[in-house]
Each structure stands twice: as C-alpha cells, then as structure tokens.
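quick one
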Amino acid sequence: MQPAEGVRFVHSAIDTDVRALEAEAFAAETDAQLDAYAARFSLFHAIAKTHNDGEEVSLFPELDRRLPRVAATYLFDHEDEAALFDAITGQVAAARGASPVTRPSELAKLRRHAVALTEHVTAHVRKENTLITPLVMELFTPPEQAAHVQAMIGTFSPELLAKALPWIVANNVFDERCAYVGMMQRVMPPERFPVACGWIKAGIGDAAWSAIAAKVPGLPV
Ligand SMILES: [Fe+2]
Ligand SMILES: [Fe+2]
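structure w/ fe (ii) ion:
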C-alpha cells in the first residue's frame, strides 16, 4: 500500500458519516434531537473542512506543478461543499429556534440540504479515490506522497486530531479499521503512535479497541 492510498480511510469515514447525518436530519424533530444533530454535524464539518484544507495546501499545489488544471475541479467541489456546510449550520440553528408552527418548514429546508450534502460529498470522495489517488501514485514517489500526507495531517490541531482519529476508525468497517491502525503503526513516529492509540481507544471504547488489538500485533492494550 502506497501512502497516497491511505486517504481512502478518511474518505470512507466521510462517506459513512454524511449518510448517517442525513438519516439523523430526517429523524430530528425535538430540541434534544436537533442539539444532538448539531453537535454531530459540527464535528463532521470540522473534520471534512480540515481534510479539504489539507488537500488544498499540500496535494493540490504539488499536483498543479506536475499536471496543471486538474486540481481546480476538486477545489471547485470544495467551495460548493463549504457553501452547503454554511447553509446547514444556519438551517439547524433556524429549526432549533423555530416555533412549533414554523419548525416543519425549517426542517424541510435542512433535510433538503442534508440530501444535497450527501450527494455532493459522496461523489467527491469517490471521484478522488477513483481518479486522484491513482494519478498521485503515478506522478509522485512514495516518499513524496508521504510528505503530502504529513502536510495534510499537519493542518489538524492536536485537539481536532484527537477527535478525528477515533472518528475515522469508528466510521470504517472492521477490516479497514485494522488496516488503518496498522498503517499508522508503520508510518507514525514511534513516540507519537501510542498517543494516537490512546485517542482512538478513548473514542471507540475498550471493547472495540481490544478487537483491533487482537488482529493487529504490537498495539498498546
Ligand atoms: Fe477533496
Ligand atoms: Fe479528499
């Protein structure tokens, strides 16, 4: 597995969580349900935005130097996605503040945008997995790819990374969770890997972590 292929774990998590968020938007009616949706959406927004920012500061400029104009179409998607994030953030607040009479119409707007976000984001990550990852592997050596990955990870604050790593693990199927943790074990500095494992364990719970540790040798338990 080359470093550029590791992006699939983040993309899978984005795909899984945006679909779950859409279902949650359709189920949310009460104040408590809307608050829970807002909290979950806020984390998704922070991680997906930082992922996009990371691509824009590391990968896209490098790609532009080797193959001009390809990255522009992906940047275009990121800008549309940012507009949907802002629209949904406003709509969930409007629905939360609405009276019982006006809440149904506010919820209808939120739900329409939740569907739009799913369709947009799932197509975008599929396009990157299908077209960008193979192109990056063709244009860049594994050490160059590893430098892009490090730069992308560097756009996450430690606080957000502590939430993003368990979120990635939680939103991947079991075999992919193991593959992701195994990849981090190979690429992370040895002194930092146990810290990452601690974040993941705290986020996904002891039982889910033990299942991964039973499959991937050498993990802290
Ligand atoms: Fe992207
Ligand atoms: Fe991406």
